[in-house]
Design a protein that fits this description.
Elements: H1 3-24, E1 31-41, E2 44-56, H2 63-74, E3 78-80, E4 87-90, E5 93-94, E6 99-105, E7 127-134
Parallel strand pairs: 1-7
Antiparallel strand pairs: 1-2, 3-4, 4-5, 6-7
């Protein structure tokens, strides 16, 4: 093999290794957190799980990730909203014109800037409560 061919092959190998190694930098590591999750409907606890392990493959564990994991472990049927960012139904209790599912994190209701549950990033030790809130309906 000539020196020129060898140099060209070596250059291609070096470029390929460089390209492949730079691709790994874009990979996101999975994140694991342990949180407490509780579901309450009109004062009745439907399910509760302390210290549940939540794994987020995209590196961003959210309240919805924890809700899905807790429902699976507790064997609770659930449905998310169409955008997959909020809880719509838990067992037979679905949102209606007179009630919705809301959440608290560490005992505090989120402010308007927090976004939906699927946007809120959780951390180790967080306490999540999803509860059903009756809405005040006014008739005119």
């Amino acid at each position: 093999m000539s020196k020129k061919k060898f140099s060209l092959i070596l250059l291609c190998v070096i470029l390929l290794v460089g390209i492949l190694s730079s691709c790994r930098k874009d990979e996101v590591e999975a994140v694991e957190v342990k949180v407490d999750v509780k579901f309450v409907y009109k004062g009745t606890v439907l399910g509760e799980y302390d210290n549940i392990l939540v794994v987020a493959e995209d590196g961003k564990p959210t309240i919805i990730n924890a809700v899905e994991r807790a429902c699976d472990v507790l064997q609770l049927d659930y449905e998310l909203t169409e955008d997959k960012l909020s809880l719509y139904k838990l067992d037979e209790y679905a949102e209606t014109d007179t009630g919705i599912w809301l959440w608290k994190i560490n005992g505090v209701e989120p402010d308007d800037d927090a976004g939906k549950a699927g946007d809120y990033i959780i951390k180790d030790g967080d306490k999540i409560e999803y509860y059903f809130e009756e809405l005040e309906v006014t008739t005119e």
